[in-house]
Design brief:
globular, binds zinc ion, mainly alpha, 85 residues
């Protein structure tokens, strides 16, 4: 039985990360998200890549990162992640 659905995982991360990162995610959702991370190492790796990228972006643009830019970054990070052995 497969418990880790990579596709829905990635969707969860992509949809949640912007809110999670900018602090607008409601506390109950945040807890669910963190709980998921605690038993899903691939998502932690993904989150860390995103945070590193997001930090770089914030340095370039201290104001809010446009959603479409965030999506482009996520696509880039995702592609890089998937190339890792
Ligand atoms: Zn996951």
């Amino acid at each position: 039985m497969k418990t880790h659905d990579e596709m829905s995982c990635r969707r969860l991360i992509l949809e949640s990360l912007v809110e999670y990162e900018d602090g607008s995610m409601p506390e109950p959702e945040r807890r669910v998200f963190e709980q998921h991370l605690s038993h899903c190492p691939p998502c932690v790796v993904f989150l860390k890549s995103y945070q590193a990228t997001g930090r770089t972006l914030r340095m370039l643009k201290p104001r809010e990162i446009p959603k479409n830019l965030a999506e482009a970054v996520m696509r880039f990070v995702r592609e890089r992640c998937e190339k890792k052995p």
